[in-house]
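User: Let's play a game. I give you a shape written as tokens, and you guess the letters that built it. Ready? Here's round one.
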């Protein structure tokens, strides 16, 4: 065997060995991309950019965040990532609002297609304009009971988490408001300031600047806990009306996900980095500054939360006549 032939064989073996080594590398060995389904600067986008920056500190690669928006309930971004490899290098940044994509015809999968991670969310509350005659939730509810369906209320669009929270307080208190849908929380809050509606249900993070500026008057949190905010305590509706725990709390669940079909190694690596990030002072300080509650759920625990949200949202939309696909046909059971 001549020297040249031996050299060629040796080179081939080296290349083959390198290929074997590369294929056996631990995940992740190249950069990860997170595609956020909502626009840049929004809550889901902000949370994902924050948590990915923290997770990077516990991974040997960078995580790039981009935005793939549009479709039905954020379906464009979910469809985009679902069509990519399930190797853990393509994550999707999402929120609880995405659970309605399937029943509204945005895509054809249940939400358990994903293995989710929940960073957290901001709790909802009921507020009224600063010049409102209502100073307590009881006063507002009593007025609504006295004139059912006449007091206009904003809570984003039909089937949004804010709308579901409005329905929950109606069911729990016996009140009936006149729901006026708006395209997003900001529009609903502006309607309250303009006097178009008498109350608004959105999140504390979204209302914070308006409350601090004296433009909105908070009446009650729609969570079991009161909130200390802007030098005073916002009471919880749970202390005012018995039985609200049958309907509440319904809370935001903002975070990201990887394909549920991804390998255990991928899920373990992401979970380890996520847990480290969630436990950091940076996340705690960011959440406190922006009026968010930290969740920290992942895997089966996060999936259970999204399953409940998916079921509740789907059948509420069905009752409102806002579904194009029967939830049962997708395997979504009634809550």
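Assistant: Ready! My guess for every position:
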């Amino acid at each position: 065997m001549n020297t040249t032939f031996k050299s060629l064989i040796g080179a081939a073996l080296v290349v083959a060995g390198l290929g074997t080594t590369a294929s056996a590398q631990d995940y992740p060995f190249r950069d990860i991309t997170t595609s956020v389904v909502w626009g840049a600067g929004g809550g889901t986008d902000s949370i994902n950019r924050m948590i990915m920056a923290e997770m990077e500190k516990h991974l040997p690669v960078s995580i790039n965040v981009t935005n793939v928006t549009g479709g039905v309930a954020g379906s464009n971004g979910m469809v985009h990532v679902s069509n990519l490899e399930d190797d853990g290098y393509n994550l999707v940044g999402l929120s609880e609002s995405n659970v309605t994509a399937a029943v509204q015809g945005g895509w054809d999968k249940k939400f358990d297609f994903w293995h989710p991670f929940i960073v957290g969310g901001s709790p909802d509350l009921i507020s009224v304009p600063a010049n409102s005659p209502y100073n307590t939730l009881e006063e507002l509810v009593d007025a609504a009971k006295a004139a059912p369906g006449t007091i206009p209320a904003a809570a984003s669009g039909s089937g949004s988490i804010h709308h579901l929270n409005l329905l929950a307080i109606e069911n729990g208190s016996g009140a009936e408001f006149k729901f006026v849908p708006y395209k997003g929380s900001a529009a609903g809050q502006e309607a309250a300031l303009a006097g178009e509606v008498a109350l608004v249900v959105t999140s504390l993070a979204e209302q914070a600047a308006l409350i601090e500026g004296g433009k909105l008057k908070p009446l009650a949190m729609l969570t079991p806990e009161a909130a200390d905010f802007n030098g005073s305590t916002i009471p919880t509706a749970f202390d005012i009306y018995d039985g609200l725990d049958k309907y509440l709390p319904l809370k935001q669940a903002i975070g990201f996900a990887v394909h549920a079909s991804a390998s255990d190694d991928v899920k373990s690596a992401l979970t380890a980095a996520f847990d480290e990030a969630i436990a950091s002072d940076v996340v705690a300080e960011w959440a406190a500054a922006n009026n968010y509650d930290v969740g920290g759920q992942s895997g089966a625990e996060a999936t259970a939360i999204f399953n409940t949200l998916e079921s509740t949202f789907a059948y509420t939309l069905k009752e409102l006549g806002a579904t194009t696909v029967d939830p049962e046909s997708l395997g979504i059971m009634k809550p």
